[in-house]
Amino acid sequence: MKKIKLIFQLLLTCLILMSLIFVLQAEAADYYTEVILQEFDGSDNPAYIANQGRVYDANEVFEEGIYEDWEAGQNLTEEIADNEELAEAVADLESVGFYIDKVFTEEELAKFDGEERPEAYVAVENIVYDVSDVFSGGEHRGYQAGSDLSEEFDQESPHEEEMLADYKVIGLLVDKTLSPAELAEYDGEGDNDAYAAVDGLIYDMSELWPEGEHYDYFAGENLTTEITNSPHGAEVMLDVGLTAALTEMLPESTDAPVDEERGLLYIFIGIGVLAVVGSIALGTHSFIFTLRGIDN
Fold first, then answer.
1. Which CATH architecture has domain 177-249?
2. Per-domain boundaries in the chain
3. In the predicted model, what is the mean pLDDT of the chain?
4. Which CATH architecture has domain 103-173?
5. Are 25 and 32 within 8 A, CB to CB?
6. How many angstroms separate the CA atoms of 32 and 53, rounded?
7. Across the strands, what pairs with 98?
8. Do the Cβ atoms of 148 and 106 come closer than 8 Å?
9. What would the pLDDT profile of 234-251 be if each residue is shown by its tens digit?
10. What is the pLDDT at residue 210?
11. Which of 107, 150, 209, 250 has the fewest Cβ atoms nearer than 10 Å?
């Protein structure tokens, strides 16, 4: 009887551990930047591609890292949009993570509210999605664009995963961004944390580099070239905690774009101004010649 009870307890423990692992894997999210994705070209690593801000396992399609004229390890968003054959070939691939080429702070995200500018973005679990087609006027079913809706989706939305899968991933929501000068302060010396930047994202190396350095790598620096050329490659950063991003990863412009009608209006105004200035100049020129004729 004791043996049966012991076996039952062991089985229960295994089930609990397996469930915990499953949950942790489900919540984990890998963030692939350009240099990290390049490592997954189908040679030494699996063949991955990026499309619409997501990274997909393309091994079944990209044999030895190549499909027709396209190579794995790249962001193929534009190519997939322009080629029906490629789009069909990669339609059912499994997503393995997110492709990150820009970041947002909460302040930056708030500017994409669908009101002052046409783009409407929301963040869910640190991922920023383009919901412009759904959030008319910046609002949808009580949800406000330009904000982090992680809590709302977790508690209220019955179809979070299915719905978000239809939207393009725009970037990553981060707590803070640092300039190169600010990054340099996180050098791991004294009580300072040890941060390192790789391809725009900043990783916390404090536990790995307790002295602020590792071989010829030093915390507080942009180590993109060094990490990319190292024996383990940039893919090792997938296992390191992400803590911030360089300011260069923020959206290029946060000013509201000029819509087409307003742009045409500005063009006509510009032409009108030039015409007026030209007329004034021509009139002045004629007037001067007239005065000269009178003098003569």
1. Roll (3.10)
2. 103-173, 177-249, 260-286
3. 81
4. Roll (3.10)
5. no
6. 10
7. 31, 54
8. yes
9. 999 999 999 999 999 998
10. 92
11. 107
